[in-house]
Amino acid sequence: MRNIWSITKRELGAYFSSPIAYAVIFGFQLLFGFFFYNLVSWFNAQAMQMAQNPYYYQQANINQMVFSPLFHNTSIILILVVPLLTMRLLAEEKKTGSEELLFTSPISVGQIILGKYLACLVVLAAMLGLTALLSSMAFAYGNPELVPWLVGYLGLFLMGASFIAAGLFFSATTKNQIVAGFLTFCLLLLFLVLNWVTAGGSGAWQSVLGYLSFSDHFEDLTRGILDTKDLVYYLSFSFFGLFLTHSLIQSRRWR
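and the corresponding structure tokens:
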């Protein structure tokens, strides 16, 4: 555990000793704030119209009308942001030639991968934590439900963790950071829209593609529904990404 933490601290230092983390976090907060402000403004306008009819006014739900679409928008932002965080994690080691020194050290490959993965998770948690502070202002001026709000953020974190695992794998495949980031973006976008294929029909293969889609598993979480199958999906995706990364690096070590 000490070795993993050493790698994590090293990577966090690399993030915050350069403009990378600051630029990514700032951009993420800016986009989130834009969507949040517009959704709250739209909700206020709708609420004023609904106030003229008591029945419709009671149907106004800030969780469904503001936070659910906000979480969906944030998942799109994560697709843009996560590749920027992960593209350098292993690609930079290959480019600078420090990969051989790193992987011949007493630290195991698994510990190195987990250390880099945890460092990126810390940055992800910091980004989501700052947005949570902003969105929590809705509790001061409205009456959203706490549990769906928390479950939505849990969904964002699990989705982001899956994205990071995929990005780590592509970072291990090449020494070009741009290529690693672009491949990560393409894969994440593909998995997000896989459920579009299932919209036009039914069948075994369409059900499989629907299950593999990020969107289908994220939908319930944005509405505050915590289902075991969604947790298993994101955790399995993350584990599989880390497993592939470990297998790829191990295969290179023994060539």
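(Above: one complete record from the training split.) Residues 2-253 form one domain.
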